[in-house]
Amino acid sequence: MTSKTRLGGKQVYIVDGSRTPFLKAAGVPGPFRASDLAVNCSRPLMARQPFVETAVDQVVVGCVSSGPDEANIARVIALRLGCGDQVPAWTVQRNCASGMQAVVCAAKDIAAGRSQLILAGGTESMSHHPLVLKEQMVTWLGRWYQAKSFGAKARHITQLKLAWLQPVIALLRGLTDPVVGLSMGQTAEELAWHFKVSREEMDAYALRSHQRLAAGMDAGHLHEVEPLYDSKGHVYSEDGGLRRESSLQKLAKLRPVFDKPVGSVTAGNSAQVTDGAAMLLLASHDAVRQYKLQPLGRITDFQWAALDPSQMGLGPVHAMAPILQRHALNSDDIDYWEVNEAFAAQILACCKAWTDTDYCRKNLSLEHAFQAIPADKLNVDGGGISMGHPVGASGARIILHLLHTLKRNQGKRGIASLCVGGGQGGAVLLETE
């Protein structure tokens, strides 16, 4: 099912953007919280604009889990940036598409004439996702605090069970669908089985992602990345998940993670748990003219779609198809594609479903499938498998990088899309001037 929405009204431009390096989580909380990441990539972005921070009308940020110290994290970011007390800010959450949702929300307000300049994007510090107490332990603590006398507390402490002290890892729980009971990796295994995606295909795609990211870094194609500096003076200038030494032989040695006896989805052909942020500056035509801005491109259309949560990885197919239909386009009309790499199995399944007439007829009500997406036009500088997937930020990152890719290669039209945990998909159609 799709929600039939289309960007109408005034033109919406993306004039600039920045992102942090994506830092691979190392099992302990990283050096930056989610607001730190967004602030640190937004400061240089705003510093190079011909207007001050207080000129923006809104700040909209996508984030899946900001933590108790960053409630309404968009407002925290806006105030830390110096946008001022009078600039409203709000946070959105659509799982993996939270950053894209923030950009779409901003675009809709500009298209409707309600705003002229909006700072929007996404941030996530997955290494800081909390540990949570079990419900039995929370109940025990509540009754402990209710006990008033020493005797009552003494009797109550005898009821404590050591097993209750084991924390719940919120990140792992969040990556499991509560309705169908499958982890995101298990849904990728489902797609691999349904579309006959082999382990060899997955590993080959994963290797290509690393090779393309390495080539993109070496060629200077990731100039939207702003370095991070921690409190100890360490500098982080590149995506931490890149494995230049990766090979098919090394990938083949990794064991399945989500279906251990017979599965094919491994840590090597899956997106990495990562901290990162990406922020974009959106503007109306009037703002572009007033400040003499040079837009990277404009948002032409967008689409949200929903499907069976156990098939969530096919969300991009369901979101991209209506856009191409509305504009009477086929795959060869799109110059470049950025489709988030949650899993190699997932993105390869999307490519197969895209050209599968039976699938398109049964699930998208189309008479014909689409032309194949050319491999040399898809994720040309790598993606989530090699650079990581900070869930709140990836949707903004792929929009920003797609615009730079179009500009660099003199492309006219591109689509950014991703799958969304819970069985959804999002897509944005971008055009250059």
Q: Can you tag this structure with a few keywords?
A:
433 residues; alpha+beta; Peroxisomal Thiolase, Chain A, domain 1; 2 domains; 11-stranded mixed β-sheet; two-stranded antiparallel ribbon; 15 helices
Q: What does this protein look like?
A:
The protein is of the alpha+beta class. Helices cover 36% and strands 18% of the residues. The protein has 2 domains: 2-130 and 273-291, Thiolase/Chalcone synthase (Peroxisomal Thiolase, Chain A, domain 1), CATH 3.40.47; 184-221 and 300-431, Thiolase/Chalcone synthase (Peroxisomal Thiolase, Chain A, domain 1, 3-Layer(aba) Sandwich). It is built from 15 helices and 15 strands. The strands form 3 sheets. Strands 1, 2, 3, 4, 5, 6, 11, 12, 13, 14 and 15 form an 11-stranded mixed β-sheet that branches.
